[in-house]
Amino acid sequence: MLRRSGSRGSSAERLAREFGVSVRTVKRDLAALENSGAPIWSRPGPGGGYGLAAGASLPPVSLSPAQAVALLAAVSAAPDAPYGDLAAAGIRKILDVLDPRTRARADELAGRVWVDALPSSSRVIRSALEEAMAEQRVIRIRYTSGDGVTTTRDVEPVLFASRNGQWYLVGWCRLRDAIRWFAVSRIERAGVTRTACGGHTVHEVGEPPVNARPVHGRDE
Fold first, then answer.
1. CB-side neighbour CA atoms (13 Å) of 188
2. Which of 18, 35, 76, 209 is the most buried (most CB within 10 A)?
3. Which option is the CATH number for 2-52: 2.60.40, 1.10.10, 1.10.3470, 1.25.40?
């Protein structure tokens, strides 16, 4: 949290709320970190708080066994999620650097979590969609709608959205000259073009469903 707070820092009260402990406990733990050599600064008075010294670094983030298994379960249960393969590779890197005791406990706990995920869509198609989104380039897709009509469209990708267990590519359809939602499972072919997107934004998609939220994990 101190790393995320940047130069503005974070108050002891906010830290206490985040971790569900008392302000006294937070101050005690911060003092212990500072005494151990952690590059923590403190600023007293109204508007004060705690933060990391500019340019300071901390040891690599580690995980508890439960946190490691939570990541494994989330990725395993959503094989169609955008960048899912990269997420799985990232988790493997994290597991590789865990201390042997934590890794062993995570392996044991992982054996107690079963996932029966639906077959994922074509890896080739998903890779093309992911590349087009990340590079913001127009993607040409062959798409069959729910009523069985097949068309070829050039789409400017705006966002990926998961709704009722189904993943969608949401983008500006150059054929319809409007924002359209395309079920990834109905995309039969996809190829990234050299054409850059025209700058359509997430706001053009409209209001998200009540429970929808970005995956960046930050509070709005």
1. 10
2. 76
3. 1.10.10
**d(C-alpha 16, C-alpha 29), whole Å:** 11
What is the reported pTM?
0.66
Tens-digit pLDDT profile for residues 134-177: 999 999 999 999 999 999 999 999 999 998 888 999 999 999 99
d(CA 217, CA 68) in angstroms, rounded, equals: 17
Which sign, positive or negative, has the C-alpha torsion 66, 211, 120, 91?
A: negative
Query: Does the domain at residues 123-205 carry the CATH identifier 2.30.30.520?
Result: yes
